[in-house]
Amino acid sequence: MSNAVATIVNPLSKKETLLFSIAGDKRQLAMSSFSLDEIGTVYPYSDNGVLMGSLATPGALAAVVRRGLVTVYGFTRSTADSRDGNTKPPSSSGGAASSGAVEKVGDLAGTDASPKLDKNLVISQIIPFPNPVAKDSELQTPYVGFAAISDGEDHSWLYNLKQVKLGRDPVLQETELQHGQEHETHSLGVNPTDTSKLAALHIPKTKQRLVFYQRETSVGKPIQVISIDSKGKGDPVTIPGTTNAYPGTPLATTYRDNNGAYTLYLYYFTQNLELCRAISSGGGWTNATLVTDEPTALVSSQLAATIDTNNNYVFYIDNDSPKKGYRKHIDPLM
């Protein structure tokens, strides 16, 4: 996604969200900050002459906190892709896209005709310093679905789509990173659509890992969630009411701890690019509903969210003011 985005609450200032994006055609990581007050200050990124970087566009970003340090993961270009300083224009069965079109509007938020890269994306740590997660091709992918979570200490888990056989939907795979040890990667045994984006949550007290994705069915492409146990296994659940989801919609999730009882929130875009939410409390999911009084999304916008004690803060580029970039949309907790 040309408009790749990730957000995280500043570990040193809980009333501030850090928003990471890609600095246009410079392929460098950019950071803006948003106060979480009702009417808060925004400190936008300013390009003062940044050098060309190695981030891939279309691409994806994910941010976690490990031992108090913000870590951002994303996609970089392989050495072969970097020789001429450009990523080869992607194509798909829905039609070819020119290089200019891809750079300007991203992958149209993942429509059925969204591009799948001909070249592999390299899953990499971006900050605190750039470095591919693995030495070999195990953690390269032609799909832009990506998410990351952490336990806040030594463990992080990365999620991406892996191509197993041409013409088949990819498999969802999990990579565990532990401080000082080799990474471990395995399949989760589910097959998202090839245009699916990903989102993930880690619940500290229960140590659950939840991954959200879109799946092809006879009635559309609803959003499913898989809850992963200590053995790396889990059963997928379809979230009711999500058959209205945009094919390849970006996904964002948050959770609230109510004295050990967790409420989970999922955000996505409908086929009309309206913001929609689903809520889980006590184990089951409610039917997804529209978030009222919010503008529709720009078709190339991605989606991210953070939470405090009163609100979810949802970030996307809206049709009312696309030139302002990512804006904060406040959704009171239920």
What keywords describe this structure?
single chain; 334 residues; mainly beta; five-stranded antiparallel beta sheet; 42% strand; globular
N to C succession of SSEs: EEEEEEHEEHEEEEEEEEEEEEEEEEEEE
Shape: globular
Helix content: under 10%
Let me know the largest β-sheet: 5 strands, antiparallel
State the distance separating the first and last CA atoms: 31 Å
| Poorly predicted segments | 82-115
* Radius of gyration, in angstroms, nearest whole number: 18 Å
Q: Overall pLDDT, averaged?
A: 85
Q: Structural class of the secondary elements?
A: mainly beta
Strand content: 35-45%
Q: Output the number of helix runs.
A: 2
What is the number of E strands? Answer: 27
Question: What do these coordinates show?
Answer:
With 334 residues, this protein is mainly beta. It contains two helices and 27 strands. The strands form seven sheets. Strands 5, 6, 9, 10 and 11 form a five-stranded antiparallel β-sheet that branches. Strands 20, 21, 22, 23 and 24 form a five-stranded antiparallel β-sheet that branches. Strand 16 and strand 17 form a beta hairpin. The protein is globular, with a radius of gyration of 18 Å. It starts with a strand and ends with a strand. The model is unreliable at 82-115 (pLDDT under 50).
